[in-house]
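Entry type: protein chain
Record version: 2
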Amino acid sequence: MAASIAAIAAVWNVSEVNKQRETTFRPELVFSRLDFSGKPITKDNPVPLSWQPIAEKVSSAENSDFSSCLRITNVGLGAAKNVKIEWSFEFDRMAAYIDVLSQMSNYDLRIIKNGNFHALEIRKDIKLGFNKNGEFTQNVGYILNGTQSPSVCGAIIPTSYKVIVSSIFLLSAKTGNFSDFDNIPDLKAKLSYEDIGGSSFSTFHIFGIKVNGVGESFAIGSVVEKPL
């Protein structure tokens, strides 16, 4: 009897040690906020689609005109692999809202939808194409823990979201009705990843836009995470 109890206790101890080891080396990923300055990407296109980080040194690859990202930091003690982000927001409703704002401002700007490839059309002579609509999946890959890799520019904000938000910036500046900012859609993200042992994890996040200043060819704001 005593031997059986001892054997059971030994198995339980091994199980608990394994659980503690898994917890100890579990990755934990968190997003940073993005404080950005928006400006047009070309002289002919007044929509402030280029969101450049404020007061942050980034590489030329990260600082491209059409790419903005939320940095991801692994604050856990283990590396994360197969990191994936599934983005979503209300694209169709906001595309229709852009049409309403365009009519109110008497400024010809609209979103032309054609399957999974859309275009932002301005004054019928400027077209800017972009892929997808309100859903986008991004594979980030591998993120080391903080002691090895402080943060990576891994979460690229979908272009379709930037088109919607930047169009609201421009049209609101033209109408002078800044209450339109209240209609900027939330950007939702499901973050999935695995630890080195293959255990899977997922977290849900909601981001909003904080507007600090806007004009007809510029915008200053932040992408901030909201509490669930």
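Comment: Helices lie at 2-24, 91-105, 159-175.
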